[in-house]
Write a structure and sequence with these properties.
The protein is mainly alpha-helical. Helix content is 73%, strand content 0%. The longest helix is centred in the middle third of the chain and has 16 residues.
């Protein structure tokens, strides 16, 4: 699947982060999530479907996607 320019820029920016910056981003995202209301039944269903897609190989988890991005020339 070809990367769009936006995805390529995002991938480059993510890979350029230091470990400390990744930790700061993770904390920022956690704080954003804590401010969110509880997930609705529809959102929980979508998450379960995503888990099924990952298990079936139709989606790639972030850890694997990052490994693949880091392996790019």
């Amino acid at each position: 699947m070809p990367m769009t320019v936006e995805r390529e820029k995002l991938a480059q920016n993510i890979l350029a982060l230091t470990d400390e910056e990744v930790s700061a981003v993770a904390a920022f995202v956690r704080n954003l999530r804590e401010d969110e209301p509880p997930l609705s039944d529809d959102e929980l269903t979508q998450m379960a479907e995503s888990d099924e897609d990952i298990a079936a190989g139709r989606l790639t988890p972030w850890k694997e996607a990052r490994r693949r991005l880091e392996a790019l020339p």
